[in-house]
Amino acid sequence: MDAPFSVDSDRSRVHHPQSSAGDGPNTIPSHDSNNLVLDVFRYTPIPTFVLDASLHVTHVSDSYCSVSGVPNRKQLLGAHVDKLYAKVTVPSNAVVHQGIRAAQDTAAPSILEESLNDRIWTLRTVPVFRDGTIQCFLMEVQDTTVAHQRQLELEERLYANETFKILVDTVRDYAIFMLDPQGNVATWNAGAQAFKGYSKSDIIGKHFSSFYSQEDRDNDKPGRELRDALRDGRCEDEGANVVITPLYKDDVHLGFSKVTRDLSERKKAESKLIAAYEESSKLKSEFLANMSHEIRTPMHGMLSALTLLLDTQLNPEQLELARVIEESGDVLLHVINDILDYSKLASGSFSISRDIISAPEVILSVFRAHQRVSKSGVSFETLIDPRLPIAAEGDSFRFRQIVENLISNASKFTEQGSIRIHATLQHEDENTYTVLTEVIDTGIGVPLIASGSLFTPFTQFDNSATKRYKGTGLGLSICKSLAELMGGDIGFHPNPEGKGSIFWFTAKLAKLKRAEYLNQLEIVQRKLDNLSCPPSPTPAFDKLRLLADGRRVLLAEDNAINRKVMLKMLAGLGFNHVDIATDGNEAVSMATKTTPPYDVILMDINMPVLDGVQATKAIRGAGLDVPIVAMTANALKGQAESYIAKGMTGYIAKPVDRKLLVDLLLSCLERED
Amino acid sequence: MKIPGAKDSIDEATFEQILEMDDDEDEREFSKSIVYDFFTQAESTFEKMDSNLEKKDLKTLSELGHFLKGSSATLGLSKVKDSCEKIQNYGQKKDEKGEKDITEDEGLKKLETTIKQAKQEFHDVEKVLRKFYNDEQ
């Protein structure tokens, strides 16, 4: 075990056998040089030891002695590396060998780390060659725990930063801007780029107020928002979906974050929802229209058969029964129409007409119908205020609908006792009458719990499986809307007599002008007489026949067969002066040139040259307000209103029903008078 | 008044209304003249439909459909009326209910079959009506 170096024990002087010769004249004197080298090895602050090619320790630094826990370096000098691990705490034998192997293999310094006694040690093995032969290994052992820790922290921080950046960058629904304290854009995320449609160079460094409208800028909205954010720690602009938050690091104000929600996705979802809702609402309307059509067709069949029956010779009892059927059938038709009305009321597209109404007549007529079919233990009474106007302006049909509903509810829920109808003039001013109608029953009454939802659509207070009382649950809610449309109100309270309820509603009816009033008075008086006497078979029919005498009618219809049928029907109703137009142009020129003007025009909608709607427009344009009745096979209810909106007075479906025609012509001629 | 064999093809209430216009229930002069006018009108309309079908004139076909729909509706000839309504819709390049768009080729194809069907329905109801008016040929 001969060492290539002889080691001076006290001063660490190394005599290199070959170093004294052949170094040339330019080298430092070898004695000083040797001393310096020895000093370097001994006093280097980096814990170091040197192994020769046979792996024996030739040099040890003091610093190594102190880190490896060996008090005396002499214990180490000359020892073989394999004996070393028994004496020192660091490095481990395995790592030393690993380092030496790596240094040999690569002929380059190797760096290895190991963890011993909760510290991290780094072993740097530097192989030293001369002429391609390994001379020695310089082994540096350093405690790198702190540096290592720092490195780990740095990596962690880098990783966190990276992740955070990815997170912020990939958020697409939010535009995130970082603003400096003055409000200039410092950076922004990809979401902002996509959302705002600017490129980076367009916006970085610009003031964020460029996102605002000129108006907002003029009002200094951006500046105000920054100030608010500083003051309150947060500023939210709900309209634009923007939140601005001031940012601080170690109490130093860095700037602001500005986060904007991208609403395009949400709007897409919303519009999808709306489309779905509209689709279902359309389906509902179609369904209702189809259903009512399906029910109406057989109902019309039944009612026209009944009309024929009423024209035959009936004894008084049969006549009365037939009239009950007729009235109930009418009511049933109304119910079907109500379902259609409901959807209109719900959508707010409903309006009430301004006809002539006789409130007492309507109430008496409904009352009469119910009295006839009343249960045996129930008595019916009416009390009508004599001050009630016999004729006023209002929607007779809708008024009747409310009365009908309240009375039929009362009789539905009353098994015994009485149903009384009180109609009083609650208020009268220059232009209107306010009519209060109360229906007082002694029925089952309304449980307290149900009183809140009585006027809510589709609710019935008895929703049990074994429902005793039928109904759609629509009636009262329609009544409420109708009463409100008539400028009134509706309500109920328990019957103070102890049993049953009082349902009441008010309606405002406009006063008639004098001439109208007198005329109506006469007609209504006759109707009232009819109510008290046995009714004549078809009062409307007789009445029209009287009115028809001498009236001039223009019939615009392109189909010869329809013309022939209409002519015959009109003749049957007492119209003997009927002129014919075969297209819209003809209708316009006849209507505008004939003097005196026609009393009524029946107008087919689909005609060649000029259609009925255009013809009506032209006639109205010429200043004529003659009643024009549309005739068409497109029988939906909404269409009738659209024709009326286009200047027509009324509407009748094809094939023309004689009874409906009678009513329509009657109202046209009465209006004209 | 029942019309033998008229089930489905004639709407009774509507036809009744025409019959009611007869001054004499044995003669039935008015309703008979209307019905026979209709026969003539239908035949000539079908002829026009055939020639316009050849010319592929959809617009005119639609108008002809509407025209015959009007008179068949007045008489309550439901089946003929329904087919005429379809002809009217197909001619406007719509489906039979007039809701969705169809192509011109589809329209022409459907028009051809529907016109044929309308003619058949017309001839069927014509027989029933001729029988009703005691005029079997």
Automatic annotation (TrEMBL), chain A:
<dbReference type="Pfam" id="PF00989">
    <property type="entry name" value="PAS"/>
</dbReference>
<dbReference type="Pfam" id="PF02518">
    <property type="entry name" value="HATPase_c"/>
</dbReference>
<dbReference type="GO" id="GO:0000155">
    <property type="term" value="F:phosphorelay sensor kinase activity"/>
</dbReference>
<dbReference type="InterPro" id="IPR003594">
    <property type="entry name" value="HATPase_dom"/>
</dbReference>
<keyword id="KW-0597">Phosphoprotein</keyword>
<dbReference type="GO" id="GO:0006355">
    <property type="term" value="P:regulation of DNA-templated transcription"/>
</dbReference>
<dbReference type="Pfam" id="PF00512">
    <property type="entry name" value="HisKA"/>
</dbReference>
<dbReference type="Pfam" id="PF00072">
    <property type="entry name" value="Response_reg"/>
</dbReference>
<dbReference type="InterPro" id="IPR013767">
    <property type="entry name" value="PAS_fold"/>
</dbReference>
<dbReference type="InterPro" id="IPR001789">
    <property type="entry name" value="Sig_transdc_resp-reg_receiver"/>
</dbReference>
<dbReference type="InterPro" id="IPR035965">
    <property type="entry name" value="PAS-like_dom_sf"/>
</dbReference>
<dbReference type="Pfam" id="PF08448">
    <property type="entry name" value="PAS_4"/>
</dbReference>
<feature type="domain" description="Histidine kinase">
    <location>
        <begin position="290"/>
        <end position="511"/>
    </location>
</feature>
<dbReference type="InterPro" id="IPR004358">
    <property type="entry name" value="Sig_transdc_His_kin-like_C"/>
</dbReference>
<feature type="region of interest" description="Disordered">
    <location>
        <begin position="1"/>
        <end position="30"/>
    </location>
</feature>
<dbReference type="InterPro" id="IPR013656">
    <property type="entry name" value="PAS_4"/>
</dbReference>
<dbReference type="InterPro" id="IPR005467">
    <property type="entry name" value="His_kinase_dom"/>
</dbReference>
<dbReference type="InterPro" id="IPR011006">
    <property type="entry name" value="CheY-like_superfamily"/>
</dbReference>
<keyword id="KW-0902">Two-component regulatory system</keyword>
<dbReference type="InterPro" id="IPR003661">
    <property type="entry name" value="HisK_dim/P_dom"/>
</dbReference>
<dbReference type="InterPro" id="IPR036890">
    <property type="entry name" value="HATPase_C_sf"/>
</dbReference>
<feature type="domain" description="Response regulatory">
    <location>
        <begin position="552"/>
        <end position="669"/>
    </location>
</feature>
From TrEMBL, chain B:
<dbReference type="Pfam" id="PF01627">
    <property type="entry name" value="Hpt"/>
</dbReference>
<dbReference type="GO" id="GO:0000160">
    <property type="term" value="P:phosphorelay signal transduction system"/>
</dbReference>
<feature type="modified residue" description="Phosphohistidine">
    <location>
        <position position="66"/>
    </location>
</feature>
<feature type="domain" description="HPt">
    <location>
        <begin position="27"/>
        <end position="132"/>
    </location>
</feature>
<dbReference type="GO" id="GO:0043424">
    <property type="term" value="F:protein histidine kinase binding"/>
</dbReference>
<keyword id="KW-0597">Phosphoprotein</keyword>
<dbReference type="GO" id="GO:0005634">
    <property type="term" value="C:nucleus"/>
</dbReference>
<dbReference type="GO" id="GO:0005737">
    <property type="term" value="C:cytoplasm"/>
</dbReference>
<dbReference type="InterPro" id="IPR045871">
    <property type="entry name" value="AHP1-5/YPD1"/>
</dbReference>
<dbReference type="GO" id="GO:0009927">
    <property type="term" value="F:histidine phosphotransfer kinase activity"/>
</dbReference>
<dbReference type="InterPro" id="IPR036641">
    <property type="entry name" value="HPT_dom_sf"/>
</dbReference>
<protein>
    <submittedName>
        <fullName>Phosphorelay intermediate protein</fullName>
    </submittedName>
</protein>
<dbReference type="InterPro" id="IPR008207">
    <property type="entry name" value="Sig_transdc_His_kin_Hpt_dom"/>
</dbReference>
